[in-house]
Amino acid sequence: MEVILNFTASHHSFDGMNPHVLLKLFFEATQHHYILYLKRLYEQQVEQLGNFQLRIHDQMIMLEGAKATTETVDALRTGAATMKAMQRAANIDDVDKTMDEINEQTDNMKQIQDALSSPFGSAADFGIVKKPLSLKKQQDTRCFDERR
Fold this sequence. Notes:
Elements: H1 2-10, H2 19-89, H3 92-117, H4 122-126, H5 133-147
């Protein structure tokens, strides 16, 4: 009805018009309004689809974050299990034993170095002993300080 009223308002005189032409104009106007209605409907659907696409994109980002979090937690679990296994394998007594062996070998090396650094042969007879470099530096600095 509204279409007919608008149509009649825009065309003031229908008296001399052919009824077929009048009917054709009415259907064209109706069709035009229907096309505009469909256009609005399609535009709304396009907007809805765009919103759905944004939501799906947001969900994909959330899923990627959840996947990264899951992978991180799995890696932490694996690391913790590996450390636990290593701690079971390494007994504290074994560590103490190893440290004792290291200290013993260090003492042996010191004894060897002391034996090699002591004078032997003709140098031992004359009392010629080379002073270690650090001791010589200390004596030089004392002499320098005394001169001041």
